[in-house]
Design goal:
Chain lengths: 116, 115
């Protein structure tokens, strides 16, 4: 079974609609992230959460909001979708880092969102 | 804004050949330089990572080379196989000792290894 799951995997919606992308993890990690992937731009951080009560904006948070319903669940919402939000969206998790070693981020399979 | 520049955008290599992907960074305040591998329909997965106090790291057929003075690092895939066909992202990790380890990704390289 996948450790990080995302639903839906594909979604087509219309401009102005509200949409929610969901992420669940069974890895027991405290930290969760939402990224957006666009061709030629790599992955860019939208929001990240250190725990249920700690949510932070990333580099491209405008037009997005998030909710950390539980340690294992982190949802991304587009309040009023627009065409330039068409992209591949990834959720990721990581452990709370200690001092030193690199903390790997574990990615879900992604949600392909198309806004018409 | 911190950037990691990656090239080439796409690469075709024959089976058994060497695949080389290059990245250059601007900000020197990074802790790790990881490479992620992404297969179609999947999320990125960590392939190999190097610390900035090490010039080279090898894991099997995959090697990271790091040139600190040039602010460049590269991924070499020796004896490339069709199963290596994927998109590869370099990244720079910052803040490993501050409580938030931020990843800045390169733009990605789509590798195709022809049989």
């Amino acid at each position: 079974d996948a450790d990080v799951t995302q639903t839906p995997r594909n979604r087509i919606t219309k401009t102005g609609k509200r949409i929610m992308l969901e992420c669940s993890q069974t890895k027991g990690h405290d930290r969760m992230y939402w990224y957006r992937q666009d061709p030629g731009l790599g992955l860019r951080l939208i929001y990240y959460s250190f725990d249920v009560k700690d949510i932070n904006k990333g580099e491209i948070s405008d037009g997005y909001s998030v909710s950390r319903q539980a340690q294992a669940k982190f949802s991304l919402s587009l309040e009023s979708a627009i065409p330039n939000q068409t992209a591949l969206y990834f959720c990721a998790t990581s452990e709370t880092p200690g001092l030193g070693p690199f903390n790997e981020q574990f990615f879900g399979p992604g949600t392909r969102l198309t806004v018409l | 804004q911190q950037q990691v520049k990656q090239s080439p955008q796409s690469l075709i290599v024959q089976k058994g050949g060497i695949s080389i992907i290059n990245c250059a960074y601007e900000n020197t305040a990074f802790d790790y330089l990881p490479w992620y591998q992404q297969f179609p329909g999947k999320g990125p997965a960590l392939l190999i990572a190097i610390r900035p106090d090490v010039s080279e790291k090898k894991e099997g057929r995959f090697t990271i080379s790091f040139n600190k003075s040039a602010k460049q690092f590269s991924l070499h895939i020796m004896d490339s196989q069709p199963g290596d066909s994927a998109t590869y992202f370099c990244a720079a990790s910052m803040g490993v000792n501050t409580g938030f380890q931020k990843l800045v990704f390169g733009t990605g390289t789509r590798l195709l290894v022809s049989p």
